[in-house]
Amino acid sequence: MAAVADEDSLRRALAQKQSSIDVQGGAVRQLKSSGAAKLDIEAAVQALNALKLEKASIESQLQAALAGAAGGGSSSASRDAFRQAVVNTLERRLFYIPSFKIYRGVAGLYDYGPPGCSVKSNVLSFWRQHFVLEENMLEVDCPCVTPEVVLKASGHVEKFTDLMVKDEKTGTCYRADHLLKDFCKEKLEKDFSLSAEKAAELKHILAVLDDLSAEQLGAKIKEYGITAPDTKNPLSDPYPFNLMFQTSIGPSGVSPGYMRPETAQGIFVNFRDLYYYNGNKLPFAAAQIGQAFRNEISPRQGLLRVREFTLAEIEHFVDPQDKSHPKFSDVAKLEFLMFPRDDQVSGQCAKKLQLGEAVSRGTVNNETLGYFIGRVYLFLTRLGIDKDRLRFRQHLANEMAHYAADCWDAEIESSYGWIECVGIADRSAYDLRAHSEKSSVALVAQEKFSEPREVEKLVITPIKKELGLAFKGNQKMVTEALEAMEEKVAMEMKADLESKGEVEFHVCTLGKNVTIKKNMVSISKEIKKEHQRVFTPSVIEPSFGIGRIIYCLYEHSFYTRPSKAGDEQLNVFSFPPLVAPIKCTVFPLVQNKKYEEVAKLISKSLTAAGISHKIDITGTSIGKRYARTDELGVPFAITVDSTSSVTVRERDSKDQVRVDVEKVASVVREVADGLSSWADVLKMYPLHSSETAEE
Amino acid sequence: MAAVADEDSLRRALAQKQSSIDVQGGAVRQLKSSGAAKLDIEAAVQALNALKLEKASIESQLQAALAGAAGGGSSSASRDAFRQAVVNTLERRLFYIPSFKIYRGVAGLYDYGPPGCSVKSNVLSFWRQHFVLEENMLEVDCPCVTPEVVLKASGHVEKFTDLMVKDEKTGTCYRADHLLKDFCKEKLEKDFSLSAEKAAELKHILAVLDDLSAEQLGAKIKEYGITAPDTKNPLSDPYPFNLMFQTSIGPSGVSPGYMRPETAQGIFVNFRDLYYYNGNKLPFAAAQIGQAFRNEISPRQGLLRVREFTLAEIEHFVDPQDKSHPKFSDVAKLEFLMFPRDDQVSGQCAKKLQLGEAVSRGTVNNETLGYFIGRVYLFLTRLGIDKDRLRFRQHLANEMAHYAADCWDAEIESSYGWIECVGIADRSAYDLRAHSEKSSVALVAQEKFSEPREVEKLVITPIKKELGLAFKGNQKMVTEALEAMEEKVAMEMKADLESKGEVEFHVCTLGKNVTIKKNMVSISKEIKKEHQRVFTPSVIEPSFGIGRIIYCLYEHSFYTRPSKAGDEQLNVFSFPPLVAPIKCTVFPLVQNKKYEEVAKLISKSLTAAGISHKIDITGTSIGKRYARTDELGVPFAITVDSTSSVTVRERDSKDQVRVDVEKVASVVREVADGLSSWADVLKMYPLHSSETAEE
Fold first, then answer.
1. Same domain, yes or no: A292 and A320
2. What is its EC number (chains A, B) (predicted)?
3. Are residues A551 and A526 in the same domain?
4. Rounded mean pLDDT of B515-534?
5. HSE, side-chain direction, 13 A CA sphere, residue A625
6. CA spacing 20 to 30 A to B416: which of A398, A661, B213, B534?
């Protein structure tokens, strides 16, 4: 907030200084044209130059203030450079490859190359272990091709849109909000002549950008004279573009379909079968890992905003009257950065909260939601996400769907800013109700009472004969309106009829009031016995963008360090063994038959122990071979420099220990599988002096 | 073949009998109309009836012969009943679910429910272990959305089609070949008045069905008067329908894209990067697991012919001059059913061959292809495919693409007949060349020679001045034609020019002969030094239809056996532990706190050992609980009937052994992980007498 106040006063100072310059400039011109004395003119010019210097100084203060506010410490340029270094390494080592590269690619589509594919598969199998197996979730696997009726029910056909504008001459499409956002940011960052009032206006637009209607966006684009970025041509009015890839199922052309925008709908439509499979018991969770699609108007932000991505979604179905969670105590003590709605509105920062307190104070709506927040925190940090660059941000009222009870995003800080990577939403009964209505199949749960319960029920009995006499052709509509009365209205009518004998009653379908007499309807409350309660379950949905998590992990794991000779910077990915694409490399120190034999023997034991590894028997220097594997994030390297014992090197500390050939596979397995730590290994085995190490 | 000869003579006998009946019927009518004696008429009628009886007997012989030929032993009705039993069990236990069932589904789309999802994930992780890890393959993961240019290069835009006909009134679409096939089969099976000649014609059509052009198909449909099956309306002429799901990438509508029909193209377009990643060395293989799509005209055959499916594909790149494989000896001794091209053409059956011999005799084109055939055999049989219902069928000449060097399908016998589940093709350099041409990026490999090699090279030098004088405006075309001569043609010309001084030479681009004289061109051979050889690698492609393999596995694993009381048939899936969706169940024998505690203790040890399992503490009888898990194919059940030792039951034998509580998790882990067999367990632990077992 301090930075903003600064910025404001600096903009005002700048405007003042500019008007002083204008005045002084005028004075100089006047002196010159009136043929004043040379000395006087010189003095006036000097004063003008002094003012200009002062203006320049304020400008650079403003520049610094803006950079500070935007970057949270690091400058935008240094963040770009860092990202470039990460992305270069990722692309050079084939963690990912722009898809269809030899055909100059397609924006927003990327391949996972061999190490990236391995990281992804490690992340997914840890996800399965941490969520599906741990909680006995029911995993399903549904197709990507989805018929229109399903996505009409879910609301995607109508609402899964972005506002788009077209270059009126070339037809090139742009996201309307992106253009307005870019314009405002550019102005704020680079236009020092901007008045403080104008700056405040642009900032307000940035804050409410997501809430602007097509008309409002269009008006602003017109007002600011924003044109197509590439051609400067005029732009069309904004209109909604549906972000689903559309296709046609079967040959007839009459069955529209879409590539699913999320995996969740496949679970909702199967609710009835899954509930039965679970023995008709709540709560239970279903889960799905799979591809989802989003036909972005113009993808930006590299690997973060793509047109096809892997989602891992959980739908936890729960009784809306009981959202407690039996295992909540397992996570209640966790403390991490949370960013509740109120703190965002009042301009505070995210702060460390204890999860148990956040739930008991009502900051987080319920225990089950809280439980998943805690489990997501554990999942992400165990993968290697830096806990200081991870926060849980609550949705603001305007961000949340009307039906949602509460919603928190796990956001990870990257060079692009804070990125939503996991959404954890209590979606209430919305989705099941929507599909129930559209399909006419009841998606409900039953709670069987251990013994029948007595329930007071409202009974409204219209007396058809009297109503017919009184209302003739309108009888049916009056009858229906009477039957549809809510309890409160009905009980008021009952009281009025008893005291006054008749009452005015508004019938919507007739659009007028009618007079209801005492003999036309009987209203009473009766006690009934019920054996079960039937209800639509609430669903709590943690939804993981796997590609985004992996990209943030790359940024959090990347660092550089000087080579031994100090002549170059070497890249390292400090992946934990859990996600490292390869757990271990095996090098003979020099090319030598005996050492190669030992290396192959060790490789066999590693295979038997299930540790993915690679042998490198090229004659390259050991230092270069270490550098190569550091860049792939391989945590351990075994170097064969004798036939009896070998060295094991840890990637980040570069510490080496000496271990017997027979033992080395099991030592590496223990640290790679997380059964022991590198510190444990250091205690157990002698540190290897680096004399033979070429590093 | 015997059945066919039978059928033929039976049809002839039937035709003869019919004409005898016609003659005798005429005789009866004549006797009646001429008022013959009653006894004479009766005798004639008796003779007619005798003939009719004989005809009926021949008809039933024909019926039997047809059923025998079609069913290979089991009747079509019993195969349908078996399939229905399997499919009912699969659907009831949620191995799979028709997708979007509450909206009445979409033909050809299925979900994997919880146990099916688990089987699939087991099959895929075994695939990764058996192929990717074992051979150090480079796994990649590419998007499903694919731009048109890629699928134009691969030929899919032009050729990935089926021929379709439309009901001319309702617009309903059918596959043209399916209608013709159904017509021929129906006629052959049910029309006993068919002449032997007509039967032979229909059989010929069935044999060549895949080779018929749109015109030929259309002519046959007209000739036989085939109409729309549902409405009997007339049909349109057949025309090609592209089976790819089409979509549009981005908002402009000018970038057509398709959902990939196979995963292979994603690998081919990355060849250059992958080759570099592999240190510029051949051979190497890349692999990919992912969704593929096929917009079937009218899907049939349930889970076998679907519109979206998981493929696992390997592209093994190899020097076309050296297709040997260093590990071929590992599989050379394997013997299994093979069905070479020649045996198919000469009407023989598949027979057992030794793989090593099949390669050395040239039946299988090369060692690398043979190696993968062997590895596929091991993969499928380890999953639980019955080796007697698995055969490798070589493609006939008319089935194979013109560029393919050889191609074998792993076919599995199911209730639908022999089903292609894995294709193993040597596709030569076709795919890389196609993408090289279309993208103008060289997708080639280099073989660096250890020392430069001397290569004799043809050098053709046209003498432009003389050619210009002789051919004026045609000079350029003559020059180009000379330069383009192949070695043989050039050396003949050289000889002719030396002996005769001139020679007639055909210039294609001019469409005529010209006379070339000795002074117009110099032809020689020179020795040049080359440091490397540049070539397009061949690719050997094993491609696995994962869903088909799983469905066949379900059929091969399914059997029924009577319940103990003998009052019902119980279903069992005899999955090997490797693919079983759950490895083990844990039951307390009776509902009892102490037993439940023991069960939970065992569950914890099983979790620690990484064995997927389920506790069932419902009060259901132990027999019913066993039946429930047998139906899911759970191989082992632990029943807690004391606090010190428990019983372990094997699913198929129903044998039980008694094991100490502390040891039971490790015993189950050993058999579930395949480290020991159930026979080993029987030797180690006392058989449990079934007195307490309720089964």
1. yes
2. 6.1.1.14
3. no
4. 90
5. 23
6. B213
Whether residue A36 is found in the same domain as residue A24: yes
Query: What is the nearest CA distance from B319 to chain A, expressed in angstroms?
Result: 22
pLDDT tens-digit series, residues B197-246: 888 888 888 888 888 889 999 999 999 999 999 899 999 999 999 999 99
Q: How many Å apart are CA A371 and CA B561, to the nearest integer?
A: 45
Q: Which residues of B touch A99 (CB under 8 A)?
A: 142-143, 266
Whether B247 is covered by a domain: the verdict is: no
Tell me: the pLDDT tens digits for B525-571?
Answer: 888 888 999 999 999 999 999 999 999 999 999 999 998 888 889 99
A482 shares its domain with A439: no
Residues of A in contact with B300 (CB under 8 A): none
Q: Tally the domains of chain B.
A: 4
Going from the C-alpha of B291 to that of each of A97, A143, A198, A267, B159, the distances in angstroms are 19, 9, 52, 19, 21
Cβ-defined contact of B117 to A140 (cutoff 8 Å):
yes
R_g (Cα) of chain B, nearest Å = 34
Using CB atoms, pick whichever of A273, A293, A439 lies closest to residue B113.
A273
Query: Which residue range forms the structural domain that includes residue B657?
Result: 582-684
Does residue A516 form part of some domain? Answer: yes
A364 and A219, same domain (yes or no):
no
Give the per-residue pLDDT at A74. 64
Answer left, alpha or beta for residue B273, where phi above 0 means left and psi between -120 and 50 means alpha. alpha
Distance from CA of B385 to the nearest CA of A (A): 23
Are A518 and A374 part of one and the same domain? Answer: no
* Closest residue to B277, CB basis, from A94, A293, A441: A94
The residue out of B183, B211, B242 marking a domain boundary is B242
The answer to whether residue B569 sits within a structural domain is: no
The ipTM is 0.85
Q: Which residues of chain B are within 8 Å of residue A128 when distances are taken between CB atoms?
A: 121
Q: Mutate one of B89, B90, B100 to test the A interface: name it (highest A CB count within 10 A).
A: B100
Residue-wise pLDDT for A477-496, tens only, equals 898 889 888 888 899 999 99
pLDDT of B2 > 50? The answer is: no
- CATH number of the domain where residue A592 is located: 3.40.50.800
CA distances from A230 to A171, A234, A299, B249 (A): 12, 11, 16, 20
B468: left (phi over 0), alpha (psi -120 to 50) or beta: alpha
Average pLDDT, chain A: 91
- A vs B: CB pairs below 8 A: 213
